[in-house]
Amino acid sequence: MKAYWFNEESFAQNPDQKLAHAYSPDRPVTLETLRISGVLYWSVSPQNWEPEIDRIAAENGYKNRDVINVTKEGLGDLYEAKLKIFFEEHLHEDEEIRFILSGSGFFDVRELKSDAWIRIHVIPGDLLVLPAGIYHRFTLDEFNAVKALRLFKDEPRWIAYNRSGDTDINPFRVKYIQEANR
Ligand code: KMT
Ligand code: NI
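That is the input. Now the predicted structure with 4-(methylsulfanyl)-2-oxobutanoic acid docked in place:
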C-alpha cells in the first residue's frame, strides 16, 4: 500500500484515471492521516492470508464475504459500466472492506478536513476499510486487473450514493462527520 495526495493538475492535463497522478516528488500520506478520516489499513501476508483474515473478520464481526474480480473477463459486458460507476465519487451506508488477493488498483478517499483526494494504491495483502459515509471512488491502474475479497457485517448495503447536496445530508454521512470530528 502506498497513500499520497492526488495531483489534480496532473489529472486535469491527462484525465486518465488509471495513471498514478502523484506529485513529483510525491507527497506521502501517513496511516495516521488516513485514520483521522476513519480509514483503516492492515497488511496481511498475501501467501498465508486466510487465518489472519479469519481472525480480523471474527474480531470485527465481518460475518460474510465474497470475491470480486475486476477485469474484462471477470465483469464481461458490465466491465466499462462498472468501472465508470466505481470512479464516480460516492458513499455507502456501510463500511467498504476490501482485501486484495491479486492485481492492484487505486482507492481515492476524500480527506475530511481538506476535502482533497488521497490516492491509495493497493496490492496483494492489503486490507483496507473505508468507513460508512466517506466519499470515495475506485479505479484500476494500468495493469487492468484486481481481485478482491469483499467483507461485510450483515446484508451488504452496496448502494452507491453519488455525491450531491442530498447525499451530503444522508444520516450516515452526518454520523461519519460527527464521529471523525470527535
Ligand atoms: C466500490 O464500491 O467502489 C468497489 O467495490 C470497488 C471495487 S473493489 C476492488
Ligand atoms: Ni464504494
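The radius of gyration is 16 Å.
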